[in-house]
Design brief:
By secondary structure, the protein is α/β, with parallel strands linked by helices. The chain is built from ten helices and eight strands. Bound molecules: cytidine-5'-monophosphate.
Length: 217
């Protein structure tokens, strides 16, 4: 059967990752969360006290980042999960993701992880930069309030629990930065299918994307 690549772009907390994960499980595809590369960079920056300047990318290149199955991220051989999910790391990731050299390096790591095909990849530039030849391209959106509420419920009861108002503010800041950066800003690429999940359930969105993949096979 022909190999299929699926690229899903969209703003923070739009449901991309849970949808991608579930579809990947059903189809036995590899799910790649591309934001984890920027989050790994941010985490390295934080623990090593690296400054945000022109030599940052060279410092980051000294570390090894691998994206494996089941969202396992190996940073210099050590499995990281919770540390990468913190909001402060997401905000820092969004800040450094506007640096051109950082983006070029991230794209190399992301393309390497997807080189075998049959992948579902989500992020902000998957449809036009990382996987421009993907057979299925989606832009998944929903209102910032709904996204903030989803993230609030997701984090509730975990170590990373935060107030709804704080999450909403962070989401709006991140959206603005991701959509207005000079290089590869988040946008609806011309061959993407736009899905607004504000008024439909995640399960329904999953069904729509699953059917689009089946049609492309
Ligand atoms: O998706 P996630 O929230 O984990 O991404 C963290 C940050 O990494 C985003 O806010 C965005 O700035 C950046 N990112 C990106 N391109 C991607 C994935 C993430 O610029 N493909």
């Amino acid at each position: 059967m022909k190999k299929i690549n699926v690229a899903i772009d969209g703003p923070a907390a739009s449901g991309k990752s849970s949808i991608s994960k579930n579809i990947a499980d059903k189809l036995n595809f590899l799910y790649i969360n591309t934001g984890l590369v920027y989050r790994s960079f941010a985490y390295l920056l934080k623990i090593h006290n690296y400054e945000i300047n022109s030599s940052l990318v060279n410092k980051l290149k000294k570390h090894e980042i691998q994206l494996l199955k089941n969202e396992i991220t190996l940073i210099d051989g050590k499995k990281e999960f919770e540390n990468l999910r913190k909001e402060e790391i997401g905000i820092l990731a969004s800040k450094i993701s506007s640096i051109i050299e950082i983006r070029k390096y991230a794209v190399k790591i992301q393309q390497k992880a997807s080189s075998k095909g049959n992948v579902i990849m989500d992020g902000r530039d998957t449809t036009f930069r990382i996987l421009p030849n993907a057979q299925v391209k989606i832009y998944l959106d929903s209102s910032s309030e709904i996204r903030a509420n989803r993230r609030y419920l997701q984090l509730k009861g975990t170590k990373n629990e935060s107030k709804y108002d704080d999450i909403l503010k962070q989401i709006k800041t991140r959206d603005f930065r991701d959509k207005n950066r000079e290089i590869d800003p988040l946008h609806i690429s011309k061959d993407s299918i736009y899905i607004d999940s504000s008024n439909i359930s995640i399960k329904e969105v999953e069904k729509i994307i699953y059917n689009l993949i089946k049609e492309a096979e």
